[in-house]
Amino acid sequence: MKKIEVLGTGCKKCVTTAEQIEAVAGELGIKVEVEKVTDPAAIMGYQVMSTPAVAIDGKLVHSGSVPNRNKIETLLKT
Amino acid sequence: MLEVFTWLANWLVYELMGLDPTSKFGTSLHFFVEDTTKIFALLVVMIYVIALMRASLNLERVRHYIQQKPRLAGYGLGASFGAITPFCSCSSIPLFLGFTSAGIPLGITMAFLFTSPIINEVAIIMLWSLLGWEFTLVYIAIGMAVGIGGGMILDTLKGERWLKDFAAKAYQQAAETPQGDAPAPEVPILTFKDRHEFARDELKEIAGRIWKWVIIGVGLGAALHGFVPDGWFADNLGSGQWWNVPVAVFAGLPLYSNATGVIPVMESLILKGLPVGTTLAFCMSTVAASFPEFIMLKQVMQWRLLTTIFVILLANFMIVGWLINLLSPWLFSGFH
């Protein structure tokens, strides 16, 4: 099971990002655990400057926008 | 070239709808149609073109660039990049921490954050088309001055003492380790297709966010234009007494708008005889000092720092207002 963290201080785009990842994972039948990280210190720990950002199993994989469908699929499959 | 929009409004409002060009409603509607069509057309073209050019500019590169420069230049750079970097206000906390944890002084980071809401491509396009280039240049100079001045004062007061503990620690750590030889972030290599996709997404994002502000702003501006008699402000609020400026700043505080919504209102206020400095003070206060933004910064700052920043900003707006009122006979000789 993949542990996915959506990093962001709570704006609308972060919520959208989390929802889309869950939706795509559901369709592909991949088990994921999506968590929204809003703690500024935790976000700083990832050295992210533009949110929403996505980390999978503790590794930063995307930042600065709501990832599109293709990008989410690639991220989930690797 | 922009007369097209006047003709369009003439045709639509006076000919097609048959409204009387001397009636209050007729003038208001004409103003509304002309300004909204003009602004939307300009915005769509310009946001796209500008996004094409800045597709490869990201915050990591900006941060690295500022780090390499001497501190004094940093304030100007912080404010300049605040003006040109694509940046959504919901990213201000990560940006703040990203800069701070890289050892960039608080004042420079805040110069970026102060200037960012005041100057951006949308604001400039609207000012240029509604109020002309003289006014636009003055506006840019003021926005930069507010950012640079605010940042310098903050550092003089040693504002970093009042950061939240974790942020203060990160700053100190970075300040102790030399950053000079940090490798430069990669410059992304973009094809035209990448740039086009970036620009298209930016256009969609920005237009989706601001269209209602344009309608509200121009709507208010149009109502003022049609229903408030010329010279009303001069007759009722006095013209340019010193206390007008602080009143305008405090009146702008509870109003929360972005530059897009306020600029069309500014146009009408000035045309109705409100002094330019007073109008600008009102506009800055509405745009750059918003409570939601301040509440967000609370996550990384103690109350003391937040209050200090707030007071500095208000003082800056008032100084700007007084100064421009004083200078406006020379600055805007050809205006109106």
Describe, in plain words, how this protein is organized in 3D:
The complex is a heterodimer of chains A (78) and B (336). Chain A has a single domain, classed as Glutaredoxin, CATH 3.40.30.10. Chain A has helices at 12-28, 40-45, 69-77; strands at 2-7, 32-37, 53-56, 59-63. Chain A is α+β, with helices and mostly antiparallel strands and 78 residues long. Chain A contains 3 helices and 4 strands. The two termini of chain A are 13 Å apart. With 336 residues, chain B is mainly α. Chain B has one domain. Chain B has 16 helices and no strands. Chain B has helices spanning 3-16, 24-54, 59-68, 71-84, 92-100, 106-118, 121-131, 133-156, 165-176, 192-227, 232-236, 244-252, 259-271, 276-288, 291-297, 303-331. In chain B, helix 7 runs parallel beside helix 13 (259-271). The longest helix of chain B is centred in the middle third of the chain and has 36 residues, at 192-227. The mean pLDDT of chain B is 85. The A-B interface holds A 7-14, 40-41, 43-44, 47-51, 53, 64-65 and B 58-60, 63, 87-88, 90-91, 93-95, 97-99, 101, 166-167, 170, 201, 296, 299-300. Chain B: Pfam families: ArsP_1 (PF03773). Chain B: This is Permease. Chain B: It is a multi-pass membrane protein.
Question: Which keywords apply here?
Answer:
heterodimer; A: 78 residues; alpha+beta; Glutaredoxin; 3 helices; 41% helix; 27% strand; globular; B: 336 residues; mainly alpha; THIRX-like_proc (chain A); Thioredoxin-like_sf (chain A)
